[in-house]
Amino acid sequence: MLIRPVAGLVFAVTAFLLATTTYAKCRVVQVEIHGSITGKLPPVAKLAVSLVFRNGRKHPPDEMVSLEGDTFSKTLGFSMYSRAGYGLLGEWGEKCDRVLKQVVVRLVDQEGREIDKVTLNVQGDFLVTANGIILRSPIVLHATDKNSA
Fold first, then answer.
1. Which residue from 43, 87, 101, 132 could staple onto 30, CB 3.0 to 4.6 Å apart?
2. Which residue(s) pair with 111 in the sheet?
């Protein structure tokens, strides 16, 4: 009758190992953006920020950023996790190699129509540090209120 307790213990240990190894152990990277908007803003304008990765995929959905007058500042995070591992415990082959390629910042009106857009390349427009990815110089977007023109 020793088989039952041993089988129960094996099941419990296996369940614990599977539960603790199914989540990625990849770090989260912070991306910092900031800037200003020139011109007259339409009511309820916002920024839509997209992160574009090495494989061309966007980080869905766009991060919506509220404006503070004619300036903005936002820190966005993303996981370096790119794919699950193989094997019983999921650890072999797990990848933490997701690479950010571009940050797309769009100024949109309340209906989501694009007013202005800037595409920033991580190589060149940002400083990559151990603590995160920091914009080298402020973004300047240009707004025009089409109703006043």
1. 132
2. none
pLDDT at 72 exceeding the cut of 90: yes
Q: What ranges do the domains of the chain cover?
A: 24-142
The residues, ordered by sequence, that sit 6+ positions from 59 with a Cβ below 8 Å of its Cβ are: 50, 51, 52, 53, 78
Answer whether residue 107 shows pLDDT above 70: yes
Q: What's the pTM value of the predicted model, to 2 decimals?
A: 0.73
Neighbours of 147 (CB within 10 A): 9
What is the pLDDT, as a whole number, of residue 16?
Answer: 42
Instruction: Tell me, letter by letter, the H, E, C secondary structure of the chain.
Output: CCHHHHHHHHHHHHHHHHHHHCCCCCCEEEEEEEEEEECCCCCCCEEEEEEEECCCCECCCCEEECCECCEEEEEEEEECCCECCECCCCCECCECCCCEEEEEEEEECCCCCEEEEEEEEHHHHEEEECCEEEECCCEEEECCCCCCC
Architecture of domain 24-142: Sandwich (2.60)
